[in-house]
Design brief:
The chain is of the alpha+beta class and 105 residues long. The protein has a domain of 69 residues. It contains three helices and two strands, in the order H-H-E-E-H. Strand 1 and strand 2 form a beta hairpin.
């Protein structure tokens, strides 16, 4: 029975690693930047009054850089603009590294 448990645990570990790798690759896809830029543009403090956002930041390795935290009433316009600028800069970097697909932001 221990052998089955070990096998299941190994399969689960492999599945988690594959999912993280897939998520990392999907997040680095050129089209992800266009989607993120559109989504960032749609967020406003007005639509989050009385609510909030859960923010978590992870490194590509999967390690947590910033544990989940709730930002009450949403992000400021300045923060959203800075995120948009970082998305735009990352998009430009990805284009320089992979000029096959180009989406204008």
């Amino acid at each position: 029975m221990g052998n089955n448990t070990d096998t299941i645990a190994k399969l689960h570990s492999d599945a988690v690693a594959l999912q993280r790798r897939f998520d990392n690759l999907a997040a680095q896809d050129i089209s992800a930047y266009s989607k993120a830029f559109t989504e960032i543009s749609a967020i406003s403090k007005r639509c989050l009054i009385g609510g909030g956002l859960i923010i978590e930041i992870r490194y590509l390795s999967g390690a947590v850089a910033l544990s989940p935290i709730c930002i009450s009433d949403g992000l400021s316009a300045g923060t959203l603009e800075c995120l948009a600028q970082d998305i735009r800069a990352s998009h430009e970097t990805r284009i320089a590294m992979n000029p096959v697909k180009v989406f204008k932001l």
